[in-house]
């Protein structure tokens, strides 16, 4: 068992959902975040192609930051604000989708972009699985009913 899984299993106020799912998702988010950072750095190293890669680099950076924040939220088990966690995971899905699409557009020329696109798609799937798990009854301590429109990132930003 990995240290994070061990701590989540030992946590006195752990959420009632599968602690292994939380650890798995946090690990996937962290891995994809690091992959995005590495891809952005590799894009910077491309030299002559840099102007065509500016959007890719920006999306790599944004996706990495968003995923890292989500991994930290998942790791904190005390007094979890489930609407916030769900919103952050929704943002992860959106960021992974945008980053994967942009990286895929460069994949034929830049192998690192193909690798990053694959990692983003895997992370997107993992986030969707976690969203389904925490949306179920008992999926969190503070799980007041929230409609999908109320928990969308755009609506949350308007509050």
Offer a few descriptive terms.
159 residues; mainly alpha; Substrate Binding Domain Of Dnak, Chain:A, Domain 2; 6 helices; 0% strand; elongated
Question: What do these coordinates show?
Answer:
The chain is mostly helical and 159 residues long. 73% of the residues lie in helices and 0% in strands. It contains 6 helices and no strands. It has helices at 3-10, 19-44, 50-75, 82-106, 111-135, 153-158. Helix 1 (3-10) runs antiparallel to helix 2, helix 2 packs antiparallel against helix 3 (50-75) and helix 3 (50-75) packs antiparallel against helix 4.
Topology:
Layout: H1 3-10, H2 19-44, H3 50-75, H4 82-106, H5 111-135, H6 153-158
Q: How much of the polypeptide forms β-strand, as a percent range?
A: under 5%
Mean pLDDT: 85
* CATH C-level label: Mainly Alpha
CATH topology: Substrate Binding Domain Of Dnak, Chain:A, Domain 2
Indicate the radius of gyration in whole angstroms: 17 Å
CATH architecture group name: Up-down Bundle
Q: What is the β-strand count?
A: 0
Helical region count?
A: 6
